[in-house]
Amino acid sequence: MMLTAPGAGIIILFAWLSPSNALYFHIGETEKKCFIEEIPDETMVIGKYRTQLWDKQMGSFLQATPGLGMHVEIKDPDTKIILSRQYGSDGRFTFTSHTPGEHQICLHSNSTKMALFAGGKLRVHLDIQVGEHTNNYPEIAAKDKLTELQLRARQLLDQVEQIQKEQNYQQYREERFRMTSESTNQHVLWWSIAQTLILIVTGIWQLKHLKSFFEAKKLV
Amino acid sequence: MYSYHGTIRVLVQVLWAHLLCGWTFGSELTFELPDNAKQCFYEDITIGTKCTLEFQVVTGGHYDVDCRLEDADGTVLYKEMKKQYDSFTFTAAKNGTYKFCFSNEFSTFTHKTVYFDFQVGEDPPLFPNENRVTALTQMESACVSIHEALKSVIDYQTHFRLREAQGRSRAEDLNTRVAFWSIGEAFILLVVSISQVVLLRSFFSDRKTTTTRVGS
User: What is the mean pLDDT of residues A93-121?
Assistant: First the structure.
């Protein structure tokens, strides 16, 4: 049964909403929390977060706080900043990787009112989806008007594409690993030879020098 | 007539969307744990949900971390010290907020990178009106089994990627260590051999007169 336009619209709206039951953690006022995502290139990453501030009087976390913002900074494997933006207390950020490797997603709060943080705790709900998990299948089904079977096939194709990208990335990393190992091997080989030579040369020099020294001193 | 059917359909889909928000997805994160630090994560779980916590230390020190999982009342469900990799499955016996913490408090100067995957419940189904009672056609059930197989392939790939990252980090450490120590040792060798000669010369230069006196 195909999805109707208003139904799909409402589903899309819900998909955009911040996660209500996602994992959460506590963060201090000036604390910066970073997460690492090691991904192949041309992979999309969607992050959603929701913040709640600790209310000392009520002894619980507030639902939403105006004036509270989170600064999101994303660095690529070459430590170049690809996204550095201020979002509100609820936010959604997205980026696509152009180089394979470790991307770093950092969050820190940037509250305008310092008094807000008197309690010292901020609860952050975070949900990061990578690759084919970012695809919103009901939206795709509505947009391309796919039947159930076609949608399932599309999901499988996306999964296989993700696997393929990861395998390519694996090949690139294995090459780096091999280069590092061979460099270590070369280091060990040449430095061992060099050290043995230094040892022999200094030994010979020591003996020659001392012999001539003693002969000069008329002890030998 | 159309509007009635249309409204019912929209309502069903809205209800499903609500359900979708209720489905808890799995969370997979990699974070850095500084030395002497502890990081806790919390999740609200409903009773009867099957959950799995899996973690692995990717880089840092002896590649070990303390992990502790507590349920809503604070009862410790899982506690391991200095573990490199583990996987723990449990069924939630109570409603509430479950907490799991990773601690690097035993380490003085190495910070660790920890990967964890916390799966709560099942993945949401692809279709709104799919209930488990209706039979799937052969094609659809083939698609479902391929999907499950591919999910396990992706899971294996993740594990392989983490192991490879660990191996590569050790290899790079080894490489820098070998380079520095080799240069250092060659330098020490030269310094020691030259200073040996100099020291020996200084012994003989001072005591030349005393030895001759003793001799005669």
Answer: 79
Residue of A nearest to B179 (CA): A187
> What is the 3-class SS of chain B, one letter each residue?
CHHHHHHHHHHHHHHHHHHHHHCCCCEEEEEEECCCCEEEEEEEECCCCEEEEEEEEEECCCCCEEEEEECCCCCEEEEEEEECEEEEEEECCCCEEEEEEEECCCCCCCCEEEEEEEEECCCCCCCCCCCCCCCCCHHHHHHHHHHHHHHHHHHHHHHHHHHHHHHHHHHHHHHHHHHHHHHHHHHHHHHHHHHHHHHHHHHHHHCHHHHHHHHC
**B199 — pLDDT class (breaks 50, 70, 90):** very high
Global confidence as pTM: 0.78
Would the CB atoms of B193 and A205 count as touching at under 8 Å? yes
CB-CB neighbours of B16 under 10 Å: 22
Indicate the average pLDDT of chain A.
Answer: 83
ipTM over 0.85: no
Pick from B28, B151, B175: which is nearest to A184 by CB? Answer: B175
Instruction: Report CA-CA distances (Å) from A27 to A48, A67, A122, B59, B128.
Output: 16, 17, 5, 23, 36
Other Cβ atoms closer than 10 A to B209: 8
